[in-house]
């Protein structure tokens, strides 16, 4: 125990401890910031975009298996030519977004207590505010053809939403979707950074037609995504540089510790310790140092978590991947290994 205490008091051990502690806190902070900004971008993107997927086969299980796909919603997709409005001034294209060749119909799921003849039109809020044409929609008759059957509706109301949708009675919706020859889903992506990967994944599924729809109310939202994405890239570069510098410093400090211990090893061999016992003792010294480091790091991290939650009502664990903590701490614990390897190589 005396030898362990002496090891902890060494200048090289103190430098190793201080630099490791600062590096852990710095890397953790950068990872938290990175995840925090990724969440901001992903929230903006998720609210303003979706992917429409349709095919003759039901691919629900394959869509659900993709972890980056969330909010899978079954929809009824109708070609625009099969939707007819009694008011000639109203264009079918005003009922759709993105590709004007189709209209999306949803179930009201009991939210609006619609009769089978009722229909609600959802229109993006910013369009509804700036366009008076939609006032003509109310009480307009609309016909929807599915196969050889035509369902007639009266538009009960026009409400603001994020995208263009038609909403009908849930029971009627269930009947109509059984008649459809296609399985259609609206998907959202959990992480903006995974957009390209998800699009590529869907593109490789045979029999699926896919379309990415984006609708931003303000140009500032697009600017925000671009600027924060650039900031995320910068943080990632800084984090990589910090990890690289820490690795170099760690190797230098490990070499210094090794040099100090090599001198002591000769003395310990002279005192009668065998080589195996000396190695175990060195492992105990460095492991003790790292355990103290982990305890202080975890304590400080916990204090910061409690403080941010109390003052700002914000949980930093919502912005930090616990897997990253695991790898950081695991990396700290296994640091004795390269030092022992260096000892073997210097024999």
Describe the structure.
It is a single chain. This protein is an alpha+beta fold. It folds into two domains: 162 residues, no CATH class; 121 residues, no CATH class. Helix content is 54%, strand content 20%. A ten-stranded mixed β-sheet has the order 3-6-7-5-8-4-2-9-1-10. Helix 7 crosses helix 10. It is elongated, with a radius of gyration of 31 Å. The model has no long low-confidence stretch (mean pLDDT 76).
If helices are DSSP runs of H or I spanning 4 or more residues, what is the number of helices?
Answer: 10
Radius of gyration: 31 Å
Structural class: alpha+beta
Question: Reading side by side through the largest sheet, how are the strands ordered?
Answer: 3-6-7-5-8-4-2-9-1-10
The N- and C-terminal alpha carbons lie at a distance of 26 Å
Brief descriptors of the model:
ten-stranded mixed β-sheet; 20% strand; 2 domains; 347 residues; alpha+beta; 10 helices; 10 strands
Short description:
This protein is an alpha+beta fold. The protein has helices at residues 2-9, 11-48, 60-65, 125-130, 170-179, 195-203, 219-270, 275-311, 322-333, 336-345, and strands spanning 49-55, 69-79, 83-85, 102-107, 118-124, 141-146, 149-161, 165-168, 183-189, 209-214.
């Amino acid at each position: 125990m005396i030898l362990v205490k002496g090891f902890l008091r060494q200048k090289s051990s103190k430098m190793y401890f201080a630099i490791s502690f600062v590096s852990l806190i710095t890397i953790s902070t950068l990872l938290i910031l990175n995840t925090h900004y990724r969440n901001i971008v992903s929230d903006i993107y998720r609210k303003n975009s979706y992917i429409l997927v349709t095919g003759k086969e039901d691919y629900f299980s394959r869509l659900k298996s993709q972890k980056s796909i969330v909010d899978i919603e079954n929809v009824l997709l109708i070609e625009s030519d099969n939707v007819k409005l009694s008011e000639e001034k109203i264009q079918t294209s005003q009922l759709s977004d993105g590709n004007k060749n189709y209209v999306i119909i949803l179930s009201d799921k009991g939210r609006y207590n619609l009769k089978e003849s009722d229909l609600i039109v959802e229109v993006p809020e910013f369009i509804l505010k700036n366009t008076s044409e939609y006032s003509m929609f109310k009480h307009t008759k609309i016909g929807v053809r599915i196969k050889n059957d035509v369902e007639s509706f009266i538009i009960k109301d026009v409400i603001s939403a994020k995208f263009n949708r038609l909403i009908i009675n849930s029971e009627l919706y269930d009947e109509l979707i059984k008649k459809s020859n296609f399985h259609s889903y609206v998907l959202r992506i959990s992480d903006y950074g995974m957009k390209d990967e998800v699009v590529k994944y869907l593109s490789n599924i045979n029999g699926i037609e896919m379309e990415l729809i984006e609708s931003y109310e303000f140009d500032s939202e697009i600017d925000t995504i671009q600027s924060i994405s650039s900031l995320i890239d910068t943080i990632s570069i800084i984090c990589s540089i910090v990890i690289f510098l820490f690795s170099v410093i760690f190797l230098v400090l490990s070499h210094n510790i090794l040099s100090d211990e090599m001198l002591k090893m000769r003395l310990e061999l002279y005192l009668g310790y065998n080589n195996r016992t000396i190695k175990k003792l060195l492992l105990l010294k460095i492991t003790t140092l790292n355990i103290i480091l982990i305890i202080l790091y975890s304590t400080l991290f916990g204090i910061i978590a409690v403080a941010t939650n109390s003052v700002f009502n914000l949980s930093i664990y919502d912005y930090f991947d616990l897997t990253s903590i695991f790898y950081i701490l695991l990396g700290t614990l296994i640091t004795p290994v390269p030092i022992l390897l260096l000892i073997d190589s210097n024999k």
